[in-house]
Amino acid sequence: MAVKERLLQRHIITDASCQFCGVGETVIHSLLDCVIAMEIWNLSEYKDLLNDVPRLNFVELWSWLCRKVDASVLCAIAALMWAAWKGRNMMVYQGERLNGVLLAVGFARLVQDYNTYAEKVLLPPSIHGPAAATVTS
């Protein structure tokens, strides 16, 4: 992710401060701690869980989450992170501040719709269904 911390490491910019908060802009900051992201997390049922996540790097954070929550919660958290990233990018590149709650609801709905679709279309047919019938010649 092209956050200022990474751009500074690559000598593309000279200041890694978040333009919204003034603290160092890391991946974790952009997804969880920035004022833009906090609009989403403060109203989320995962707020308390995210207070406990390790913040050293994203791999450590994600590994911790994978050990602590089931797949559906992990998917929901990923959708909210995606919404936070979208909100940040809209502010950075287009100067448009989106409603964090509406953005989060939209992304959560997108993931829910995909999961509903995937359950119907992508799962293999039951072994007891029509595909299990034997054909005799």
Description:
It is globular and about 60 Å long. It has a domain at 31-121. The chain is built from 7 helices and no strands. By secondary structure, it is mostly helical. Helix content is 60%, strand content 0%.
Search tags:
mainly alpha, 7 helices
Order of helical and strand elements: HHHHHHH
Number of continuous helical runs: 7
Number of extended strands: 0
CA-atom Rg in angstroms:
20 Å
Protein name: Reverse transcriptase zinc-binding domain-containing protein
Summarize the structure.
This protein is mostly helical. The chain has 7 helices and no strands.
Topology, element by element:
Blueprint: H1 4-9, H2 27-33, H3 35-41, H4 47-51, H5 58-68, H6 71-94, H7 100-121
